[in-house]
Predict the structure.
Amino acid sequence: MKKPLRVMKFGGTSVGDAECIRRSAQILRDASREGAVVGVVSAMSGVTNRLIDAAIRAEAGSRDRAGAALSALRQQHSSAVQALIGDDAKRARLSAALQSIFEEGERLCEGTALLHELTPRTLDMVSSLGERLSAPMVAGALEELGVRSEAVEATELIVTDTCHGGADPLMDRTRERSTTRLGPLLEAGVVPVVTGFIGATEDGVLTTLGRGGSDYSATILGAALDADEVIIWTDVDGVLTADPRLVSGARTIPEISYREASELAYFGAKVLHPKTLRAVSEAGIPVWIRNSFAPEHAGTKITPRGRSNGGGVKALTAIRGVALITVGGPGIVGVTDVVGRTFSTTAEVRANVLLISQSSSQNDICFIVPDADAKRTVEALRKEFAADVAHEKVEHITVDTSIAIVAVIGENMRGVPGLAGRTFIALGRENVNVIAIAQGSSESNISFVVAEADVKKALEAAHTEFGLGAPAPLSAQASGVLQ
Ligand code: ADP
Ligand code: ASP
Ligand code: MG
């Protein structure tokens, strides 16, 4: 029988310091004894944020502060290398490789400071440095464990479009490149350790897949190599019923469908990048979420269909850092095409509309965009409706940034009566005011808007209402609650 091929991705905390890197390398070593394995690694935790910060400081002309940020990172990486690699010659080689990446970073920041300009292309290059630093360290740690390994930059493998900061793969080209480059390594029993998060255009210009995009890198490579499974190693025991930082009783979900996991990711569950499952949806490759700090736990298996249990609530999530924009006033009933004009305006400014809600009287149209998109959206709307505001047909165009979206997720929830009612009664009991409810009914989620300050209370109330913290008794399953 053919040996299995696994793609294993390690997130920032799983490569956060020398000890974590060693633990992750041990997981890769153990997997390499059972079959072929490709590692995909994130930057050490916090590094991408610090690199972006350095680039922004450089743009503001502050060369020294950008330089200081880079030297702190240099220190962090060099002490990890010191702790990881015993052999002097090997350590010197690895340090020299990292040194030249830091020099590249310095040159990029100097150029940015000189021009006072940070283009999306340069920002991608600066933010990619963290993964380019961590991949050789993990490969070095594997060699220390006696496993042959080679660090590979994903710019050689993942061919993307030119959308800097959120690129998508061109799968045919990616497949060609990945099999040509990685196939011979795997055949020779070498474990490639690939940089997550990045790719390159056909012309070789570096791109990034978006923040948190290493999960996506792993499934892109999994699909390109026809892997048997993709395992995403992180710092929690799998996909939980809610963010454990917000709901103390959150529990691991043993199996979940692609669709449910995608909804959770889209609605803010950081455990998975929202595009992760796109890459494997055609091939149906299972994706596991597991804890690199507790590898004895099975984690969550994400499969095309999940574990069907007749529909019901499976998990909760919240999106923070968003703004509610309202276009309203009694007069808008008479304004022609107010809905159309509102959303063609949001499209023009490329605002990412996360949720839309409209009262039936048409007095108000409200929708939610990320905080970063709010200012330009409101400005564009005020311009679009300037004449209507002047004639008092549109009374107000307002923005409220103190809100959050909460989503209740589960496959086929529409088929289960009473779930929305139960959600809102539970919130009412806790005095959580629901500001808006999403228009229409998605089959797999109910989403609504609450004050940012109420998010934790709202999640806890719904978590308790649907018994998500404890194994569901049979009677509860019959009424549509599942686990
Ligand atoms: P990594 O660095 O490994 O990619 P992330 O920080 O991106 O890890 O994602 C893992 C984090 O996602 C967890 O530490 C947890 O706080 C958060 N999280 C949010 N919602 C969920 C959820 N439903 N299940 C599991 N983790 C969640
Ligand atoms: N290091 C990148 C980020 O912080 C990608 C990732 O961790 O998935 O966004
Ligand atoms: Mg992540």
Q: What stands out?
A: The mean pLDDT is 92. The radius of gyration is 24 Å. Residues 11-12, 42-43, 48, 130, 196-197, 211-214 surround aspartic acid (ligand 2) (CB under 6 Å). The CA atoms of residues 55 and 109 lie 6 Å apart.
